[in-house]
Structure formats: C-alpha cells, structure tokens
C-alpha cells in the first residue's frame, strides 16, 4: 500500500508527542547550532537511508553555511544481529579523511547502527 504523507493519523496514533510546529522549531534550532559550530568547516551531512531522508532535507534547509550531502544505506548481517557487523549497501562517495561528518539517523533504538557507522567512519579518518 503506498504511503500517503498528507493523510491524518486520527485513530491510528494514541498520542501526538510533538506538533509539526514544535518539530519545525527544533529543526531550526539544530540547524542554527550546526551553522554556528561548523562555520568555515564545510561539514559533510550523511543521512542513513531511508528513514532519515525527510528529516535531513528539512534540517539542511535550516543550515545557513555551505555543507555537502551524502546518503548511506546499511543493514546488519542477519535479522537480529547483535554482533555489530554492518553491511554498507550504499556508501559515501567522498573521502572522509579530515572531514567534519554529521550523521543523521531517523530513529535510534539500540544505538548499534549509529555506533557502527560512527566507528566505520572514524576508521577512515
């Protein structure tokens, strides 16, 4: 069934935790902080597909400094892999050595994916 992003969630969601306006303001605040912290550094913003794509597009619109964008797609080996082994189905196409890399993830439940991506990127410079 195709997703209808314009549909309301009435009846499907027990409680809305944050309104669209609250999310917009948080995104603006984060974008402003990134712009201040990385002024003059050309950060590389890397989104973890596919969940981070929509938020990342909103976030980079709130960043007022130049930045580069990349996307990665990762999966664990096996359905319930706890080993931390990660397979890059799509990797970045630029050299990470000496770069300021910001990883954008949609939902962090266990943190294993984010930790493994961070370690893999750290190993590259």
UniProtKB/TrEMBL annotation:
The organism's place on the tree of life at top rank: Eukaryota
Molecular function in Gene Ontology: hypoxanthine phosphoribosyltransferase activity; magnesium ion binding
GO terms, biological process: GMP salvage; guanine salvage; hypoxanthine metabolic process; IMP salvage
GO cellular component, one term: cytosol
Pfam families: Pribosyltran
Location of the Phosphoribosyltransferase domain: 22-123
Name listed for the protein in its UniProt record: Phosphoribosyltransferase domain-containing protein
Taxonomic lineage from the root: Eukaryota, Sar, Alveolata, Dinophyceae, Peridiniales
